[in-house]
Design a protein that fits this description.
- This protein is mostly helical.
- It is 81% helix and 0% strand.
- The protein has 7 helices and no strands.
Amino acid sequence: MVNTDVLINLRIMAEVLIAIHMLARFLPHKEHFILRIAISSAVCILFAWLFPVPPFAAHHYVGWGLLMYGSFFAVAAGSIACCYQETFLPVLCCTITGYTIHQIASALNGVLTLISKMTGFLITDGIAWFLSIVLTFIPAYLTLSKEIRKSGQIRIDNKKLPFLSIVVLMVDIVIGLYLLELQKTYDAPGYEMMIQLLNMLACIFVLNMQMSLIANRNLKTELEIVSNMLQKEKRQYENSRHGRFRP
């Protein structure tokens, strides 16, 4: 029988990988792309499977959870770097976005479970999880992929914003871990609901920052293209005018 903590770790890693790849798939691929995805994903899943969950972790949710999430983040980022021809910042941006989408889905799952608990309306864990995935992943894909497909790449000018996103995401994870620890000693669905909603808002803020980074760069690229075209037309006009009046 597989341990519940191991299943949770596997689910987290799988959701993060799916969220990252569904956006990064529009980026330039490295050679043997399918093989790279298969091997790197298998390594990530194996890492999640083997990640130790000692007995004292149940009493130190926040500390141990941060170590786990940080390790998963690093492994997932390495997996993306192995598959796509991108530099450090775009890989970091994709990983942050994937993690953020997972966090929103996790918070929404908690909200649906609490609604079921508070109203008596039966929502099984499987249905709550499925609804949270569908209601999070599909809108995120439709919104973010539109900007990435425009240029087929991710270029980031503001190098500070991704690291600010990591800080906000870490705070959100700490709050979520604290909530898990709180659930073991208190039964306060209203308070839990408020924290889950705050988690969702924080993650939506991070997601919006990532989208702004991509959209802003795309606008700059389009502006540069238009500017170059105007300069080219101006040079052609000047050349034709001088040629017309030449004796």
